[in-house]
Amino acid sequence: MLGYTVRRIAFSLFVVFGVVTLVFFLSRLSGDPALLYLPEQATPQQIAAFRHQLGLDRPLIMQYVMYLDQAVHLNLGDSLRHGGSAARLVFGRMNATLELAAFAFVISLTISVPMGILSAIYKDSLVDAAARVLALIGQCTPIFWLGIVLILVFAVRLHLFPTSGRGGLTHLVLPGVTLGTYSAGFVMRILRAEVITILGHDYVRTAWAKGLRKPRVYIRHVLKNAGIPVLTLVGLQLGYLLSGAVITEFVFAYPGMGRLALAAILERDFPVVQVFAIFSGCIMTTLNLAVDLLYAWFDPRIRLT
Question: pTM here?
Answer without folding.
Answer: 0.78
